[in-house]
Amino acid sequence: MRFGVPQGPVLGPVIFTLFTQPLVEILQQYNMSYHFYADDTQLYKGASPKHITDLTTGLEDCVRDVKAWMNRNKLKLNDDKTEMLLMKSSRQIINTPSVSINHTIIDMAEKVKNLGFIFDSDF
User: Fold this and answer.
1) Helix axes of 52-72 and 12-29: crossing angle, nearest 10 degrees
2) What is the pLDDT of residue 26?
3) What sign results for the dihedral spanned by CA atoms 89, 114, 41, 63?
4) Angle at 76 between CA 72 and CA 80, to 5 degrees
5) pLDDT at residue 90, rounded to an integer
6) What is the pLDDT averaged over residues 46-59?
7) Average pLDDT of the residues in 3-28
8) How far apart, in whole angstroms, are the C-alpha atoms of residue 61 and residue 26?
9) Quick check: 62 and 74 in contact, CB under 8 A?
10) In this predicted model, what pLDDT tens digit does every residue of 69-108 receive, in sequence order?
11) Any idea where the Reverse transcriptase domain is (predicted)?
């Protein structure tokens, strides 16, 4: 196989980790925290309210580079399943700019499900 990781072999998780190492390097360039679980990737980044615009611009740039890496490696980022959650204090009112990935606007979610747990914007 020139691309991907076969499902089922004992070495599958190790091979997957090696295969995705360049993805980790892209995320680290943007100082993103991340979590991989099977074929699911989550990105995390904190910012003060006055730096939200910089945060969203950096996120767009990072995801653009991730998507380019995925395309080169015959993988697909599912834009329809991409979600964004802004966690903040319930007392804070933050005007968030929209985030666009590949000409698709990613709506801000009020809550997201992560491994069976539901997180909302007020945490």
Assistant:
1) 140
2) 95
3) negative
4) 145
5) 66
6) 84
7) 78
8) 10
9) no
10) 988 988 888 877 788 877 776 666 666 767 777 777 887 7
11) 1-119
Residue matched to tokens 């070495």: 11
Q: DSSP readout, 68-99? A: HHHHHTT----GGG--B-----TT----PPPE
Which two tokens mark 14?
Answer: 């190790």
CA distance 1 to 113: 34
- Exposed, middle or buried, 43 (CB in 10 Å: 0-12/13-18/19+)? middle
Token pair 């995390």 is found at 44
Determine the residue type at 88.
K
- The token pair at 56 is 């969203």
